[in-house]
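User: Need the bound-state model for heme C:
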Amino acid sequence: MKFAIIFVFVALLVAGFSIAQTAPAQRPQMAEDVFKNVQVLKGIPVDEFMSTMGVFSAALGMSCEDCHASNDSKWENYALDTSPKKRMARRMVQMVTAINKDNFGGHQMVTCWTCHRGTDHPKITPDLATLYNRPDEADDLIPPAPGAPSADQILDKYIQAIGGAQRQAGLTSFTAKGTSVGYGPEGTPRPVEIYAKAPNQRTIIIHTQNGDSTTAYDGRAGWIAAPLRPVPVLELSGGALEGVKLDADLSFPAHIKTALGKWRVGFPATINDREVQVLQGSGPGGSLATLYFDSESGLLVRVVRYSDSVVGRTPTQIDYSDYRDVDGVKMPFRFTVTWLDGKENFELTEVRANVPIDAAKFARPR
Ligand code: HEC
Ligand code: HEC
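Assistant: Bound-state model below.
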């Protein structure tokens, strides 16, 4: 349940860091411009800095307040160095950077997860129980499988399965309504709105008790705005930006073949007891995404996309199901988004295709 706690604490950090919200749109805001006491994670954009906090928490099985003595949830306290764990984490960042530099040519081969694997205390001795009962853990990088179908074949089958290229090309926009159930304390259904416009604009709004939680991509820039966060409107950069672009691209699959590059097909895998084809592609900035298509129906059932951070990749997984017909094209009416800090189960009740949408819906949220 720790991640639920993390989630609440991200929320409780309060809007105090809003100070530096007026930076120019071009250069992303750097962590040290916004936060008070950044010593080792300098020179990275604010959104990546927040991702590193997610990686720390996940890798160590900790909540934010394990390192940030902040039981009263005052955001100022996050700059304090009273916690020995926080000070240790700084040393560990430097240690990991040195390990990678000295042994792996600076490539990110060792991360916090490599040793910690969800605990504060890395294990010293092989555990016999896990040795003989090892769960399958796929690598992030999918090795191309000899004899696999081509990427084009898999993507063509998918396009066919969702109504065909012509019908897809005729889909120029849609709006959707539904509900979303979050993880832990966010566990009651909240109303959701989605706006999407071809080729790649998309906004999703969750009306939470504390205010709207919005993810928007206008075709070039992307933002996550949420109530009670350290940075109320987080401008996305790097892999996180490529991630929301991919979500938008996948809303209009007519263009799926160009949504990513360097496609490679791996060995088939299994999701929910069904065989899936595994297809991986790369974004223009080097971000990574793996798409899983049901071998039989051809439908897209899962996307795992990764964005880089200085302390390791951060994964986001989206599972799609309940495909239904909307004006001749098939769309998933259920999807679940899982990331390091939380989980949202979306259920759509109404989707309307080819409706006019005000451009302001995709702009930077207020
Ligand atoms: C394992 C320890 C650890 C955990 C867990 C952790 N942090 Fe941090 N946090 C740090 C360290 C270390 C720094 C300072 C980084 C530096 O000096 O470059 C920091 C700095 C910050 C800052 C900047 C404060 C300022 O003004 O200087 C914020 C905000 C923050 N963390 C938020 C969070 C949130 C939110 C979470 C939970 C999702 C979290 N942290 C989890 C170790 C941790
Ligand atoms: C090469 C292995 C290794 C890597 C990589 C590593 N750690 Fe550690 N870490 C350890 C060991 C060993 C300890 C000591 C554990 C103990 O005392 O039981 C430790 C302890 C810690 C502690 C203190 C935990 C506590 O409860 O007092 C923190 C915080 C921590 N690491 C954070 C990190 C962070 C953040 C990263 C990634 C930047 C990281 N570690 C990467 C091996 C590693």
